[in-house]
Amino acid sequence: MGCFECCIKCLGGVPYASLVATILCFSGVALFCGCGHVALTKVERIVHMYFSNNPSDHVMLIDVIQIMQYVIYGVASFFFLYGIILLAEGFYTSSAVKEIHGEFKTTACGRCISGMFVFLTYLLGIAWLGVFGFSAIPVFIYYNMWSACQTIISPPTGNLTTPIDEICMDVRQFGIIPWNASPGKACGSNLTVICNTSEFDLSYHLFIVACAGAGATVIALLIYMMATTYNFAVLKFKSREDCCTKF
Question: Which of the four pLDDT bands, split at 50, 70 and 90, describes residue 4?
Fold first, then answer.
């Protein structure tokens, strides 16, 4: 067998679905964790500079941000390992194993491990749907603030009934800081100053990218669900036959 035929045979056994899901998962988790970590740091700075003059008013926010950043470290590490494991599981239940290492025999332990991956991937998919929804909250808050700034800078002709100085953004209503925090809100020109800062612009776009990364991770987990479910079905129902999958 020539080198070309050998390469074609190896490529024929590559679990392409798992490979695409792994690349998408790594990219999504990297965007979510990296951008989310930096954006949270910018949020702390914006709140401290413009919405809470007393550090004791946003000490809980600082603690929550630090906890979330540590969670981000753990999520990044876990999904790096989990993605590699799922990709390896996809390879070892593909035809490449049979072609290279001889006849592929399934065992009860192998089927149990594949079933565990199916169950765990479904749980992670549901959890990441929640993460995706949660990551959209700061995007919504920033969009409201940006829209208020655009209204102040370029007020609609004949449709603006509220004076510009009374157009405000009160972050206390979102639970970011307590209601007794001072000033707690920014109005008129003070609000436009915040919107024009580099911290606001950067954190806004970082939260958007982090939300997109969470969405990409959800898509990757959906692909993993299909791949692991297919592999488990093949291992279970064809355990006594010539097992050959392409996922």
Answer: low
Report the alpha-carbon distance of residue 52 to residue 181 in Å, rounded.
6
The two three-digit tokens of residue 27, written as one number: 């990219």
Element (H, E) at 2: none
User: How far is the C-alpha of 98 from the C-alpha of 32, rounded, in Å?
Assistant: 37
Who contacts 50 (Cβ-Cβ below 8 Å, separation ≥6)?
186, 190, 194
DSSP for 132-151?
Answer: HHHHHHHHHHHHHHHHHHHH
Structural contact between residues 17 and 41, judged by C-beta atoms closer than 8 angstroms: no
Q: Kindly state the DSSP code that residue 13 receives in the 8-state scheme.
A: T
Which helix (H) or strand (E) covers residue 123, if one does?
Answer: helix 108-153
C-alpha distances out from residue 95 to 2, 4, 11, 104, 116, Å: 19, 18, 10, 8, 21
Question: Which residue type is seen at 234?
Answer: V
Query: What is the CB neighbour count within 10 angstroms for residue 191?
Result: 23
pLDDT tops 90 at residue 129: yes
Q: pLDDT tens, 172-207?
A: 888 888 888 888 888 888 888 888 898 899 999 999
pLDDT tens digits, 47-82: 888 888 888 878 888 898 999 989 999 999 998 898
Q: What is the pTM of this model?
A: 0.83
